[in-house]
Amino acid sequence: MNADSEDRATRLFFELFDGLPRQGPGNTASTRRALESVPGLGAESRVLDLGCGTGVQTLVLAQSSPAHILAIDSHPPFIDVLNREVHRSGLADRVAARVADMRRLELEDGAFDLIWCEGAIYNVGVESGLRDWRRMLRPGGHVAFTEACWRKPNPPAACVAFWEREYPAIRDTAAVLDAIDGCGYETIEHFPLPASAWWEDYYRPLQDNLTAFRERHRGETDALALADSVQTEIDTWHAYAEFYGYEFFVVRAATSPASR
Asked: Measuring CA to CA, how many Å separate 198 from each of 48, 67, 82, 212, 241?
């Protein structure tokens, strides 16, 4: 794929996902529930929200705690949306949003009490994220993240094939808990996202975007192939949601700086 094709593919992708309330499954109640598991957040606390997207959860964190928050995402239009909402909501004294790559963070050591990552840790992997981010945590700091997990054994072949294409690292919840322990963290809380966090907060508005996107790009093979791919994701969830989902994990770093 040449540079022009890559640029067009990127433009089409972000056009399809433009205007969505969230860039992945999640909801306000789940964000608040996870936050409630993190003790001692005060006005001097600092939170890092990685892969924040347009920052729906960033604003929930700011409205539900007195902490200062730095939110980052690699897509500048998402950060523009979040910054506008931060100023509109009167939160600019506590929330900053900037463009950065979560895979190449240049942030100071021991700076944050909490690292938050809803629907984005897959970009680096659970183990890599937990190990790499640890240096940025204060002693006993917390990490909260969501990760796709198998819910039931023996999923149908079509479901397995979808995940082998999209995210072959998917594991069951027990395996993720073992990985957390192996990285030197203690799990404080974990719970599944409800089905409504997939459909009402994400897939339903995405389905509306898909319909309009197909209409705008009739006859454009690459755009329609993208639309077909996203439709397959939605259809797979409708058919096999009982077998997989997102799990919210809240973990605390061991007080020793050495990881296992």
From this structure: 24, 28, 22, 20, 9
